[in-house]
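Throughout this chapter, every protein is written as a compact record of paired, labelled lines. The reader may check this reading against the record printed directly beneath this paragraph:
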Amino acid sequence: MSTPTGTQAAPEQDFDDAVARYRRELLAHCYRMTGSPSEAEDLVQEVYLRAWRAYGSFEGRSSLRTWLHRIAHNVCLTALEGKERRPLPSGLGTSSSEGGDPLDERTEVPWLGPMPDAALLGTADPADVVAERDTMRLAFVAALQHLPARQRAVLVLRDVLRWSAAEVAEATGASVASVNSALQRARATIEQTAPTPESSSRPDLDDEQRALLDRYVDAFWRKDVDAIAKLFTEDAVWEMPPFAGWYQGPRTIAELVDTQCPGGSYDMPMVATTCNGQPAFGLYLREDGPDGDVYKPFQLQVLELDGPRVGHAVVFFDVEYFELAGLPAQLGPDDVPARPGR
């Protein structure tokens, strides 16, 4: 990084050493605010650029971490000015669709995207990752998108970063009273749309849930729609941006997979990953290649488990998420279960 003309900055190595440990949490901060992993990555670069330019004048009146998050706060608010919120299909205010309904693709909508856990590795302390898992859940990030940008910022600073009202007031240029009022309104909205982080804390997957995920992979590989239906709770929701429909109930979800999914039996292997602190799978679709079958990225499924069943599945068709999640660019015959008759 070269020094911009007319600015005074600290030596590059000093700056890099000081701020490197905060990159993960800054990325998570920007993602919670924007709902887009790629936009969050761009904003973190902007945060670092602004911080680098000002680092020589940083006097240490606050911690370096607080200073960086204050910059991230301002960068995010500027980036969100005039932009639409990023929803999931279930947040559009429409009723559940039937599994056989025609798909309604809405490429003009700035949809919420998943944050692969692999993108948040590096300097992360595993204990920190576990502690913040609930505030990265898709349901929570989607609920944040219902808030005006400044309420969203106050909620993140107070309830996620655990800043005091006085610290938030100083960072935002608002009074403590206005910060508390914004927080109260934000919490009320979040309570209506998603569980609070404190009320949704869960332990790691138990043996029954790990067995459920094994059955899930097997059911899609065989495209056994009856088996798929049995894996979901009675009020489970399936949604798949950029398609505007969302689907509720195991039979509706099974019908959707049966009638709308182009893959057949033994066409759809899955590779496990995690996104937003939740179990996730890259689903691949078989294609005929010159040297035999190949399996290309098709969709990334992020699951919310409800006990021994799947309560919510959000399915993303942007294959760029495969690379972010550390998933293979394609699979070959040796990477998938044996196909009957082959």
